[in-house]
């Protein structure tokens, strides 16, 4: 055990010396992330899986298509969260000159691949509140695949403050609802430059059915103003407002 510890310590010193000899150009660039530099500096005495974990989008080793899909879905929230207009793609000019065949009109999804269908879902129009059609993203896979790391890196890359909660820890639906609303609705008063939250719910497959119903009720809430005009606004005000922040759920068993 002593020899293994000494060998591990020597290997750690070798890796630190190799990393320390390389000039860090990214930290010298204007507008560099100071929090990333602080994390790397404080990671000198932590586990290897934490020390060498990816902290930027380009450092991810997970499936590239999954990474792009999750980032594209998260960027759909920019209109309602950051007030940015959604980028509109220009249509191809050749589509008018070459109309599709008749059988393609009858079965529009027959010959499309899973990738094309997913791209169409992500490029769908926003709802009346400028939110994407699907309010929650679900990452599923075996342990150690990098789901939580992917969620944190994507959220930080898109300009959010990643807030993580474990659904299996909060067994009470009341506690689950309180933490859910605190992360998705309450705004920080610490400063004007505070980043908006992106809620990451880990182990959602371990949550009880009552907590899942709480999550569904928050997702399916109607507009408070519209309900008040029709006479049902009192109940909606007690329940809370619309969901205006993205939620990423993670599970092992889909």
UniProtKB/TrEMBL annotation:
Gene Ontology BP terms: DNA replication
Family the UniProt entry places it in: Belongs to the activator 1 small subunits family. CTF18 subfamily.
Main location: nucleus
Biological source species: Campylorhamphus procurvoides
Pfam family, one: AAA
Subcellular localization, as worded in the UniProt entry: Nucleus
InterPro entries: AAA+_ATPase, ATPase_AAA_core, CTF18-RFC_complex, P-loop_NTPase
MF term (GO), any: ATP binding
CDD domains in alphabetical order: AAA
GO cellular component: nucleus
Coiled-coil residue windows: none
Domain AAA+ ATPase: 133-245
Record keywords: ATP-binding, Cell cycle, DNA replication, DNA-binding, Nucleotide-binding, Nucleus
Highest taxon listed in the record's lineage: Eukaryota
Name of the protein in question: CTF18 protein
